[in-house]
Amino acid sequence: MDWETRQNPERLVKTFRFANFQEAMVFANKVAELAEAKGHHPRLTVEWGRVTVEWWTHSAGGITEKDREMARLTDALLR
Questions:
Q1: Which InterPro entries does the entry link to (predicted)?
Q2: pTM of the predicted model, to two decimals?
Q3: What's the CATH superfamily of 4-76?
């Protein structure tokens, strides 16, 4: 998995790049649908041509197996 681990809080982070804002928004909405379906929600930052997704579990104070699974499912949205 090619996600970066950052601290404070410990979390998985990845920036996805797109050709334009509209494509970035389509992807962000897919991530939102995934999050709702799984009951686990990321921090999403949408900018022109990119979406940064951050997964961690607040109650655990960091990364859990659920976050790793959500990161894998997020990657799969591009396939």
A1: PCD_sf, Pterin-4-alpha-carb_dehyd, Pterin_deHydtase
A2: 0.96
A3: Transcriptional coactivator/pterin dehydratase (3.30.1360.20)
